[in-house]
Task: structure prediction
Amino acid sequence: MEQPVYRRSANGRNFYRILSGTAFTEVQLIGSRSIVHDVVAATYPERVLIADMVAMTDGHFLPCTPAEFDEAMGRSGGSDLFRPADNR
Result:
C-alpha cells in the first residue's frame, strides 16, 4: 500500500490520512470548527479500523483526495483548530 491513503466517512464529516498500518490523522468537522486527532494504533481493534478504512469496508469509508483532506484540515482557518492532548 502506498502511503498516505486518503479516505472520508460516508457522511462527509470525517476525513482521514492513513500514514501506515498503525497510524492515521482524522479531521472531524463540527459546525465551522475542525478537531484533529493523531491516532497511533496501540490495540488490535484500532489496527482493524485502519485496515477497514484502507479496504473501504461496508461503504462506511469512501476515497477522497489529498486536496479534500487539506481543505477539511484548514477549514477552521487555523485559529479554531483544536488538537487534543496526546493521551498515549
